[in-house]
Every structure is written in C-alpha cells, then in structure tokens.
Amino acid sequence: MLYNLSDGTETPVTQEVGKAYSVSIAVSPAAEWVATSEQRDGEDYEIWVIEVASGTERQITSNDEADTNPVWSPDGSRLLYSSGEICGPMTCRTAAQHR
User: Fold this and answer.
1) pTM, whole model, 2 decimals?
2) How far is Cα 56 from Cα 53, in angstroms, rounded to an integer?
C-alpha cells in the first residue's frame, strides 16, 4: 500500500496473487515504480517491479535463491539487490533495466 500523508488515503500497489509476502520495498526516485521482494505461493523471494500508475507488474528475478533488498539507482534505471544465487548469501547485483 502507498499511504498519502497529505490526505490519509491508501492505494494498493500490488495485486493479490494467492499468498504473497513482501519483505522489502523501494520506491523509484521519480515515484513511478515500486520494487519489492516477494514470496508468492511458497516459492523463494524474487524481485518484482510495479508501475504505480497502472499497477502493471514485471518479475525481475527468477532463480532458486532468495533475492531481497532492492535499491534504485539515483536515475531510476537500475536496481541493486541482494541474491544468494552466485557467491552465497547477500551477493549484490544489478538487474537489467526494468522498462
């Protein structure tokens, strides 16, 4: 949910997809995108990006390890996240451009 401090409204960002748990969320610098690490239906955590205006989702990672803690680059074109996929836990990598 996005909470608007000025008027107290809440806007859903993600769609309900079975059982989903988010452990970390990052809003892009221009506030157009939200990156989240989600566990859906018992799978491991993967990185997703959601366009705030439309709610359109795109899965960024898909592997057998947990991907968490997304952080946007200052220009909003890349994501840095932790992944256990390559050299063990907490390996940081950049995702391909999300758009």
Assistant:
1) 0.72
2) 8
- How many angstroms separate the CA atoms of 9 and 35, rounded? 21
Q: What does residue 57 show for φ and ψ, rounded to 5 degrees?
A: -110, 150
Over residues 32-70, the pLDDT tens digits come to: 998 988 888 778 889 999 888 888 889 998 888 888 899
Name 87's Cβ contacts closer than 8 Å, sequence gap at least 6: none
Rounded to an integer, what distance in angstroms lies between the CA atom of residue 44 and that of residue 18?
Answer: 14
Which residues contact residue 43 at a Cβ distance below 8 angstroms, ignoring those fewer than 6 apart? Answer: none
Q: Closest by alpha carbon to 23, among 56, 61, 67?
A: 67
Burial 17-37 (b: 16+ CB within 10 A, else e): eeeeebebbbbbeeeebbbbb
Measured CA to CA, the distance from residue 27 to residue 32 in angstroms comes to 8
